[in-house]
Amino acid sequence: MINNSHQIIFRLPKKKDARSVMKLIEDSPPLDVNSLYCYLLICTHFAQTSVLAEQCNETCGFISAYLHPERKDTIFVWQVVVKKNLREQGVASKMLNSILHRAYRVPLHYLETTVNPSNKSSNALFSTLAKSLNAHLVKSLLFSEDDFGGEKHEKEMLYRIGPFDILTKEEI
Length: 172
Ligand SMILES: CC(C)(COP(=O)(O)OP(=O)(O)OC[C@H]1O[C@@H](n2cnc3c(N)ncnc32)[C@H](O)[C@@H]1OP(=O)(O)O)[C@@H](O)C(=O)NCCC(=O)NCCS
Known about the structure:
Layout: E1 8-11, H1 18-26, H2 36-44, E2 51-55, E3 58-67, E4 74-82, H3 91-100, E5 102-103, E6 110-115, H4 120-132, E7 136-143, E8 156-162, E9 170-171
Helix pairs in contact: 1-2
The protein binds coenzyme A (COA).
């Protein structure tokens, strides 16, 4: 008999998940930890474009994302996190795919995100995604260190992946 108890489930986040999402992010440097209010908003207003990974009823992965306000065929991926003991096993890639395969009002053709130059795993994740979508990956500066004022913060490079065509599976 196959034991599926450690199976990872991918689903839309709910309001009750905001605390566990925040805890996972707190445990995952170098991510910026935002307020609980921010995670409550993501898990409600932006739930349709975000994803939560769960194992044994515990949050083990999360992606916050939203449709770009000016480019409706573009999804912007904000924070991506996977619990330490589950990294490099394809969990983040599966979360990205689960978001990309939803049926949106306007079909998605681009994914944008930002990557800190020192974040090798993040760079690897999105480079692999671009390859798997057979799409271009164009990098440009979105926010410089100066944009963060006095806060010591690495620059944020914009990665724009696309154009791509995706078969949608999931109605949202
Ligand atoms: C970035 C992060 C989400 C990646 O999650 P993950 O589940 O380990 O990613 P995946 O297993 O789906 O890997 C996707 C690709 O990236 C590669 N990769 C992941 N981590 C890597 C690392 N540290 N070094 C080199 N390659 C790496 C994988 O090998 C895979 O490529 P492949 O399919 O060509 O082999 C995870 O490392 C994390 O939570 N880091 C802390 C938070 C963070 O920095 N988030 C990103 C900024 S928002």
